[in-house]
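Hi there, hope your week has been kind to you so far. Do you reckon you could talk me through the fold, stretch by stretch? Thanks so much in advance, here it is.
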Amino acid sequence: MEISRQAEKLHSDSVVVDTHIDTLLACIKGQRSLGQRSCEGHVDVPRLHEGGVNVQLFAHYIEPAFKPDRGLLRFMQMADEFFSQIQRLDDAEVAFSCADIQRIASESKVACVMSIEGGEALQGDLRVLRMLHRLGVRCLGLTWNQRNLLADGVGESRTCGGLTRLGVRAVEEMNRLGIIVDVSHLAEPGFWDVVKICKQPFIASHSNARAVCDHPRNLTDKQIVALAEAGGVMGMNFAAYFVSETVRKEAMRLRSRGLRPGDMKAVATLDDLLDHVDHIVRLVGVDHVGIGSDFDGISQTPQGLEDVTKLPLVTEGLLRRGYDEEDVQRILGGNFMRVFRQVWGS
């Protein structure tokens, strides 16, 4: 797909926010450096600039090998990698507030924000949560797919478990501190607990619409409506098996035969991804959808969105579908910036 001059200018003039990437995993394993352009994976700072990203949330993912009792250790290791990598760069800076984001963007740098994927980092202690906020954590995914001390992840849905007492207290404390509650990967009963308890807008940083692709990691229409009524936003995940029902079904067939995803012939497309956007906009309006690519945490992207440099194609695709420029800017980052301002303040 060719990028029109209108799309190119609009993308450049917009505040582009991506609420979830897993690139720190590659960095801490010594596979890549944030400051050096690579042919591997999906993201580095040079490619963030080329893709027009102004604000990037970096997930500090707590891997299963560090669960249940070494989550805080792993977070601290990843946080050290995060600060060490970014402090060496002239064109990226850690952001702790919306004012930081505005200043960093005005200097043509990428604003890098700390997020956590997995409540195991708290080690069951809200005092740790308060210290994580002081370090700069501004968004926390309560679970990954498994159960932890806060809640059940989507992989434990058979138990029908929601938030624990500690999980309820953690959400309340996150509201007080100004940490965004992220419900991606959370089992559905926990989602509804967040709806009841959370006093601030919450997000699904990297989840799509289940009505378009019937994957348990995607949100039902009922969930999307509740998230929107709370003022929240969901970031579109670029994982092909969350985007395309055809890809999801083939992936299931391959797994049942003991084959690998690399053997997959089905592909997802940009249009498949935009079908999720269209569905959400029809359901709750344009103010509740954004980008949460899951780059460097996924094995297969839609064709044409092979890495972060291809993000202007999303702008082009939205314009071709009839979205006006103001609505495109909301989807690219304006909606998430609204939530940041509401939860973090200035």
